[in-house]
């Protein structure tokens, strides 16, 4: 079939308009997604910052310390600060039980974050009967899941959770999702950290929380 030149020009014009329209729609959708993503990041960042400075410590059935690095059986400065804060809460009578959380590393099969935490608390006067060490979890989500199992097995209705301030919003969300009633208590801030490090920690928490919500891990 031969298309007259006039009609061919109209067809070309229509195709050109269609491509332009599709481009505008694509740009509009992309712009909307960027706005939504920015709003989401700002909201999560605001929640993280709020939990980082909010201490909800109150009488509860247990105190749970989320793990951090250990070095050949010794707590890292971050883990020690969390344990010291949990120890202070225990000594103040906040709860009669302390749960230490966190598994080990393939390169160090003899130690775990939870086990190192238990030993640290024992060395500082906490009775063995007042400590439960969880030593298998690999990340925050697994720690929360195992904490929920421990809580059900021991009829623990409320728990004060201890970690770094920027970590607590995500911990609170995961614990609530697992059916736990938790109160957050950030460990005291030590020496000042650089703005870059602080932003890196916030970015890590934003991405980790978003991935958990989207079930990307």
Short recap of the structure:
By secondary structure, the chain is of the alpha/beta class. The protein has one domain: 3-Layer(aba) Sandwich (Rossmann fold). It has helices at 5-52, 77-91, 113-123, 140-153, 168-177, 195-214, and strands at residues 62-65, 70-71, 74-75, 98-100, 131-133, 159-163, 182-186.
Round the mean pLDDT to the nearest integer and report it: 89
**Low-pLDDT segments:** 7-15
Query: What is the fold named in CATH at topology level?
Result: Rossmann fold
The proportion of residues in beta strands is: 5-15%
Number of DSSP E strands: 7
How many H/I helices?
Answer: 6
SSE string: HEEEHEHEHEHEH
Could you give me the name of the CATH homologous superfamily?
HUPs
Please give the structural blueprint:
Elements: H1 5-52, E1 62-65, E2 70-71, E3 74-75, H2 77-91, E4 98-100, H3 113-123, E5 131-133, H4 140-153, E6 159-163, H5 168-177, E7 182-186, H6 195-214
Parallel strand pairs: 1-4, 1-6, 4-5, 6-7
Antiparallel strand pairs: 2-3
Helix pairs in contact: 1-6, 2-3
């Amino acid at each position: 079939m031969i298309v007259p030149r006039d009609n061919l020009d109209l067809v070309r014009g229509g195709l050109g308009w269609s491509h332009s329209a599709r481009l505008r729609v694509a740009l509009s959708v992309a712009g909307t997604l960027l706005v939504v993503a920015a709003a989401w990041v700002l909201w999560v960042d605001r929640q993280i910052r709020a939990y980082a400075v909010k201490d909800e410590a109150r009488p509860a059935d247990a105190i749970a310390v989320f793990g951090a690095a250990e070095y050949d059986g010794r707590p890292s400065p971050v883990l020690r600060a969390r344990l010291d804060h949990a120890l202070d809460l225990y000594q103040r009578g906040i709860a009669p039980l302390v749960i230490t959380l966190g598994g080990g590393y393939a390169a160090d099969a003899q130690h775990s974050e939870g086990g190192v935490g238990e030993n640290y608390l024992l060395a500082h006067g906490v009775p063995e009967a007042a400590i439960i060490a969880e030593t298998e979890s690999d990340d925050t989500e697994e720690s929360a899941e195992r904490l929920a199992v421990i809580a059900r097995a021991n009829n623990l209705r409320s728990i004060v959770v201890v970690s770094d301030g920027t970590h607590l919003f995500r911990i609170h969300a995961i614990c609530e999702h697992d059916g736990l009633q938790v109160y957050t208590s950030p460990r005291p801030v030590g020496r000042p950290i650089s703005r870059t490090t602080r932003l890196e920690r916030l970015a890590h928490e934003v991405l980790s929380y978003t991935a958990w919500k989207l079930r990307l891990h």
